[in-house]
Every structure is written in C-alpha cells, then in structure tokens.
C-alpha cells in the first residue's frame, strides 16, 4: 500500500548514489558501502519501494544487497559490513516500468567480457521496448522487466571497447531521460542524458568522490559539492582523479521542472537553482497573480510549505500551520478499516481547529494530480470550522503524461479532463488558482529556457510517439 497522502502526487522512480574512495583513504572494509547508505538516507524521498547497495572490491568482485522497503528496513550494520570494497553504488526505487518486485530492485550486477559491473539508474528510456525487442532477437536474455537491464545488455554488446567507449555507444542507442552510476573493478562512472532531464551531481570527500542525484546527499555525508554533471557528460573517477568525457552534445537543455516544484528536497541545489528558494519564489509569484483576501495562509505539509512561506511574505497575510502531519505513518501500515479508509488523509493530516475555525484560508499546495486528496483536505478544513478555503497551486495544471521517469498517467490527471472551474467544483474549494507557466519561469529566473515542461504544455523534448505511458528505471 502506498502513501495515504502522497498517492495523489506524481511519483518519482528513484535516486542514485556512487562512492569512490582512494585506497589510502579507506579506514574500514565497508566504508564505501556505509557512505552510500547515508547518501541513500538523504535520497529516500525519491523512492520508497526498494533499496540496494553494491560494492566492488579490489579483485573486481561485486557484492550486492537489495530488498523491498525503506533504507532503514533494508540495511543493518551487519549487512553493511558484508559489503566490503572502496567503490559502491546505491539506489532507492519507486517502480513504474517493471512493477514493484524484488527482481527489479537495483543496483543490477552483471558480468561481461571486461568483468563485473554494478549499475544504478534513474530515469526512463522512451525506446525501451524497441531496444529490448532488438536485443532479444540478437539472443539477449532478460531476467527483469526494467529498462535498466537494456542498458546492461547494450554495454555487454559493446564489451570489446573500454567501458567509457561502450557507454558512448550505449548513449547513442538509448533515448529518454537518465542518470547512471556504474561501479567497475577500479572505476566509478557517472552518466547524464544529453538534455539533462534527470539530475546528477559530483562531490569531493576526503580521499574520494561522490556522485548523487541531489546535492542534499553530499551534505549528509560531508562531501563538498563540486558541480553538476553536465548534460551528455560521462564522468570517470579512478586513481587519476576525475576525467570528463563530452559524450553527446545538444544545444537544447530540458531539466525536469518538477524537480523544483515537488521532487527534490528543499535543501538541494540542482543545476545552479536552490530548490527552497525556487519554491518560495513560485509562492510569491502566485500571490502577485491571485491577490486574494484572506485571514491566514496554510500550507499542505510538507510539499506546500516553501511556497506558502513565499505567498505569505509577498501578500502580507500571516502564515499559520493549520494542518498537522503525522510523521510516523510510514510507507506501509496495518490495513485500515473501511471507516478509516473513508476518512482518508486523516491518517496523515489533521486540521488545527483553533487555527482554522471561523477564518478565511488560503491553502497552498505544490501540485494537483487526481484531486482526491485536495478534496479531502478542503472537506476537513470546513469540518474544522473554516469560513472559506481558497486553494492556490504553485505550479500550472498537469495535463500531460511524463515519459522520462515520473509516474503520471493521462487518465489519472484531473486537469486533462476538467477545466479549472470543474476542478474547483470537484475539490469543493471557494476558489482555485494555479501558477501560470510564465509566472513559473519568472520564479525560476531562467526566462523559460532550459526546462522540460511537457507535463504542462505537451511539448516533449525527446519524441514519444508510440511510447506507452509511465516509465521507470
């Protein structure tokens, strides 16, 4: 069973981390795996279905441990100690392509002509089925139903080349959004798709380096942020240090805008933009666009908090925590009774009657997918005595499916079926306001350039004709 609150949000599929420690910097046999473990903790928000770490020792042998569940459920000190090696890659996953099964958990470890490789992948290949059919015709065998295994098979096909050259040929074949970390005998490699759709950054440890989906993972493990991996770049980390290969060049950039709206942690900085600052700016812009009269600004915790703070600061309307979140409702829990299921989000959220009763409320959230959770929250606030509830959303309406690594399906998107007034009526709010596309770009301070906003306008930077909806590594 998924999140009671978050099942009405778009779901990311995973986060990746890679650790390289120089031989002289290794204090304990499992230090790389332990470092990756803490990095995964910081990336837990990117995937809660499975977690895994693979470590490669000096002999090129790769050991992997992965299981369904949260990072804290999957790993114990004893498990970490059983993953020796100074190079490690880790992965947290939310499944779209492939489904929620242990067989599809990552990292994937495979042997090919040049030895063993551990591979972790964030993103989605839009030509996954075409490549899989082609490889199967050539005799490839598949044990999982993920597009990550296609990448492994392509690397094996090009195994007569160095790993870096095999990766370049693989990048020519695959289409979509992806960030990869790979561990081989004495090398850690990071790869980012040519448009930079999926994020990846590089950090420096004392005696080593780290690759991660977000900079918050670097902060957690005490690494210094060096830079983002450039779109189309291959970063090779070995005894020589860091070598950069410009594998595929593209004039276009298409960073996923939903990283800034919802997915990334607020304390992360992606491609030069701090996420918390961007969300506050979106909230402030929303206040300028709406000019509503109300008594208090209330966030939907936690995803709407930064935008609500920006809205309150710009509008001069006081910020109040009118909804309390139960942070101890985990990924899974005892199946609720039908009565509790009908109450829905009360398992995770409860209004503060003393704050909301008799007051006109501006309720701030980051996005709406199905609208069911928003409807329940508005109902809860009214039951608690709210006089008016005006829902403001710090992003434009999500009208189109994503094919690059976010789990949104067109039939689920309320904005694909209803106009704003129809959505307002369904949710039961007194008014409903979305941030404009122009306002979003203004808040990001990039003039509308360099982002993938296909979920809003249907303009896909990588062609998706004939691609099935969904997707995931």
Explain what this protein looks like in three dimensions.
By secondary structure, the protein is α+β, with helices and mostly antiparallel strands. It has two domains: 243 residues, Glutamine Phosphoribosylpyrophosphate, subunit 1, domain 1 (4-Layer Sandwich); 185 residues, Rossmann fold (3-Layer(aba) Sandwich), CATH 3.40.50. It is built from 17 helices and 25 strands. The strands form seven sheets. A seven-stranded antiparallel β-sheet has the order 4-3-5-2-11-10-12. It has a six-stranded antiparallel β-sheet with strand order 6-7-8-9-13-14, covered by helices on one side. Strands 18-21-22-24 form a four-stranded parallel β-sheet, sandwiched between helices. α4 crosses α5, α9 crosses α10 and α9 crosses α16. The chain is globular. The chain starts with 10 loop residues before the first strand and ends in a 16-residue tail after the last helix. 54% of the residues are buried.
* Euclidean distance between termini CA atoms: 21 Å
The proportion of residues in beta strands is 25-35%
Mean pLDDT: 90
CATH topology of the largest domain: Glutamine Phosphoribosylpyrophosphate, subunit 1, domain 1
Strand order of the largest sheet: 4-3-5-2-11-10-12
Globular, elongated, flat, extended or rod-shaped: what is the shape? globular
CATH class membership of the largest domain: Alpha Beta
Low-confidence stretches: 1-6, 469-473
CATH superfamily of the largest domain: Aminohydrolase, N-terminal nucleophile (Ntn) domain
Structural class label: alpha+beta
